[in-house]
Write a structure and sequence with these properties.
Layout lengths: L1 H15 L1 H19 L5 H8 L5 H6 L5 H5 L8 H16 L3 H8 L4 H9 L18 H12 L3 H8 L6 H8 L2 H12 L5 E4 L15 E9 L2 E16 L6 E9 L10 E10 L6 E5 L9 E12 L13 H38 L1 E2 L2 E2 L4 H29 L5 H26 L1 H4 L8 H12 L4 H17 L3 H8 L4 H32 L13 H25 L7 H26 L7 H24 L4 H11 L11 H11 L4 H5 L13 H14 L1 H12 L9 H10 L5 H18 L8
Parallel strand pairs: 1-4, 2-4
Antiparallel strand pairs: 2-3, 3-7, 4-5, 6-7, 8-9
Length: 758
């Protein structure tokens, strides 16, 4: 007992007496910290400083405040935004024939281009005072998603001017003169913008762009002008073939010191009319046969004045930060909108098709093999809609959540790919035969585009999510890195010492929470609600604590090597991502008013998210480079083993059963698929067949009963079966008519297009 008392006293003295702590704790740890500190490039540093920490910070720190999540409110459309969707968007949908756009025109029809321009589809983010719509991120996302349910090519055409590009950059950073010159013409479609960032030698490593602008004097408009000689070669630039104004990112250099002592000024963005002398718009690309305009641009020794830099000369060298902040908004709105649209279409059509398509005498939706895949489609669509709403809500709260939007970009585009693959598996021949009736094929073909653009998904997952999240979201690491970079050693030590005690307490708290929750099945955790979702909040707090303690140990042991251990850092990023997606799911359930018919989807999604988060933790521990640390982590995180299992078969069956009928739950996750009078698309066709067959479900049961009793023959073609039933007075004339009409719609829905033989 006395030994324990002496040990406690020693610890109190060691940590409580500043001089002793500084000598034996702070100074050695500080020295070690500086040694293992991961070096940051200038572009990494700018990326770290750009954007804001939002809800992901709560999830990362081990003890999320769930009331904060619920306090963000529910995303809503203004009256003006809803009116635009109900009128202009609906009208645009009636003008879209995606098969004609992709296979015949290879472009949008002129009347659709004109309508988009006249009605402000290219001005969703431009302020009203310049003639724009100035819509919310949520409205922007909803508009793009609704269009994407009918045509990816049309949606991308609308999405690009409202994402990273001249409009957004000018709105945030442009000089007053630049805004007044360009925003009104962009708002009415007189000018079409594109933004050139990617080149043959710089894709995901956009900070390494070789394109250069050299500060020099040249004659411009008859006067000696200080400006830039630009040389660039860019590719994959959406809207480049039709653009009238080019946003350009390049490395700005001042070798002759015309602006000052700095020779390499850094990445800069400029705005250049495409008819300016020397600007070349090259040949068009063919992105997986999609019809949106995409191509190349180049220029050699093209002179522009300095005031063409976006934001003016004072923003020279600040382009990377501008791009990171604007890219984060684009990642959170545009590409997730496309993915969510895929989910809505896949859920609406696959549930309908599985009900009307029969094999072996019953709807294919009754087969468990089909139900397994269909449950994933429905659950992933619920997840996509939840993440779309929470992410755009963050943007509308005027934060720039760079980590959250990286999560959204990666995971939502991957979920979009998953739902389309499952939908294609279930609808099979219906999905692969292209034609006007096909509603899956083009979206399926286009999916890799979203996976690839605005940061390749592999690198987004392995480098960005955890790489930025670990530093930005951690309550101490970024401040400790700043202390380590201080030139005054004494001030640096004092600053580090004040942070160290807090960091130690933070780590100990997370370790104890993780261990305690693991031993008690998370029952010690608090939850903001009671009822069927209460345990999910508790389990998420447990996993959040586990991620926090694992992050601290990873940084302590691997230091700067951590960012090169991409597989481990990606798995820890997956934990954060799954927690974010799960948060979005619970919030959508609350925002929808805790609808009981949403619970099957919530149970499936939450079980899957927790399973994947725990699996990522387990895999990271299994591959941890220090075996001693791995044992410690396993004791703290999974002392009784990992019991977070994937969704059960019952969850899948319950989810699908509730969706194989019309109802509010199905409507809530398919509402982006707009209905309108005269709609002759394949989506409308299969939905009409579904509704007609469901309305006649009692008649089909009556026929089945008659077949089982021997009053009607089995395995008859439908029309013959109806005729026999009418002849034997099993059904009335009106019921016969209803069945025939439903069967006509059924046959139309399961049939595919055919064409003249070549």
């Amino acid at each position: 007992m006395s030994i324990v008392i002496l040990l406690v006293i020693a610890i109190i003295v060691l940590f409580g007496v500043r001089n002793i702590r500084m000598q034996f704790i702070t100074r050695p740890v500080f020295s070690f910290f500086k040694k293992v500190l991961p070096p940051l490039s200038s572009t990494e540093k700018e990326a770290m400083e750009a954007g804001d920490v939002w809800w992901e910070g709560e999830l990362f720190r081990g003890k999320p405040n769930w009331n904060t999540l619920h306090g963000y409110g529910k995303p809503t459309l203004s009256a003006e935004e809803q009116d635009f969707i109900d009128n202009q968007v609906q009208t645009a949908l009636t003008m879209i024939d995606d098969f004609d756009i992709v296979h015949n025109r290879k472009d949008l029809p002129p009347e659709l281009w004109q309508y988009f321009k006249e009605q402000g589809f290219f001005a969703l983010i431009i302020p009203k005072k310049y003639g724009g719509r100035e819509f919310s991120a949520y409205a922007n996302s909803t508009i793009v998603a609704k269009i994407a349910t009918r045509s990816v090519s049309a949606a991308v055409t609308v999405m690009v001017p409202n994402s990273l590009g001249p409009g957004e950059l000018l709105t945030h950073y442009g000089t007053q003169e630049q805004k007044e010159r360009w925003l009104p013409t962009l708002a009415v479609g007189k000018d079409i913008p594109c933004f050139a960032l990617t080149g043959p030698e710089a894709g995901s490593d956009a900070g390494a762009i070789p394109d250069v602008g050299i500060v020099c004097h040249r004659e411009f408009d008859g006067e000696e002008t200080l400006g830039l000689s630009l040389t660039w070669n860019k590719r994959y630039i959406t809207l480049a073939p039709v653009a009238t104004v080019l946003g350009l990112a390049f490395q700005m250099r001042d070798p002759d010191g015309l602006l000052g002592d700095v020779k390499n000024i850094g990445i800069t963005c400029a705005l250049i009319p495409t008819d300016h002398k020397g600007v070349e718009i090259g040949r068009r690309h063919n992105p997986l046969m999609m019809a949106f305009m995409n191509g190349t641009t180049s220029g050699e020794d093209v002179f522009i004045p300095l005031d063409w830099i976006i934001g003016g000369p004072q923003f020279a060298g600040k382009g990377w930060r501008m791009l990171v902040e604007c890219l984060s908004a684009g990642r959170g709105i545009s590409l997730p909108a496309l993915a969510t649209a895929s989910g809505h279409v896949a859920t609406k059509t696959t549930t309908a098709y599985s009900y009307v398509r029969q094999q072996f005498g019953m709807p294919i939706g009754n087969f468990e093999g089909v139900q397994e895949a269909m449950a994933r489609i429905i659950a992933n669509t619920y997840q996509l809609e939840a993440a779309r709403r929470l992410t755009t809500q963050g943007i509308d709260l005027k934060v720039k959540p760079s980590v959250v939007t990286a999560i959204a970009k990666y995971h939502m585009t991957e979920l979009g790919r998953d739902v389309l693959e499952d939908a294609m598996d279930i609808q099979s021949g219906k999905g692969i035969q292209l034609g006007p009736k096909n509603y899956l094929g083009h979206a399926y073909m286009a999916t890799p585009i979203s996976i690839t653009v605005e940061g390749a998904n592999i690198l987004t997952r392995s480098l960005m999510i955890f790489g930025q999240g670990a530093t930005r979201c951690h309550p101490y690491v970024l401040a400790e890195m700043e202390a380590a970079a201080m030139e005054d050693e004494t001030s640096a030590l004092d600053r580090f010492d004040s942070l160290l005690l807090g960091h130690i307490g933070y780590a100990m708290g997370n370790a104890l929470r993780s261990f305690g929750y693991a031993l008690t099945g998370s029952r010690l955790g608090s939850a903001p609600v009671s009822g069927p979702t209460q345990q999910y909040y508790r389990d998420m707090t447990r996993i959040s604590s586990s991620l926090a303690i694992m992050t601290d140990l990873s940084m302590l042991i691997m230091g700067g090597d951590l960012k090169r251990k991409e597989m481990i850092s990606a798995r820890m990023g997956d934990v954060l991502s799954q927690l974010y997606l799960a948060s979005a799911t619970l919030k959508l359930f609350e925002d929808n008013g805790r609808q009981q018919d949403d619970l099957p989807a919530v149970h499936y999604v939450m079980t899957e998210r927790l399973h994947l988060a725990a699996k990522a933790l387990n895999d990271a521990i299994r591959n941890f480079p220090s075996k001693v640390a791995a044992i410690l982590l396993r004791v703290l995180i999974f002392p009784l083993g990992n019991h977070f299992n994937a969704p059960s078969d019952k969850f899948a069956v319950d989810l699908v059963t509730g969706m194989l009928k019309p109802g509010p739950a199905r409507d809530r996750i398919t509402f982006l698929c707009s209905d309108f009078e005269g709609d002759e698309s394949g989506v409308a066709e299969v939905e009409q067949a579904f509704l007609a067959k469901y309305a006649a479900k009692d008649l089909y049961k009556k026929l089945k009963k008659a077949q089982r009793s021997g009053h009607l023959k089995s395995k008859l073609p439908m029309i013959e079966l109806f005729e026999q039933a009418l002849e034997k007075d099993i059904i009335t004339q009106a019921e016969h008519k209803q069945l025939v009409e439903a069967d006509v719609l059924r046959l139309a829905a399961i049939n595919v297009d055919d064409f003249e033989a070549i």
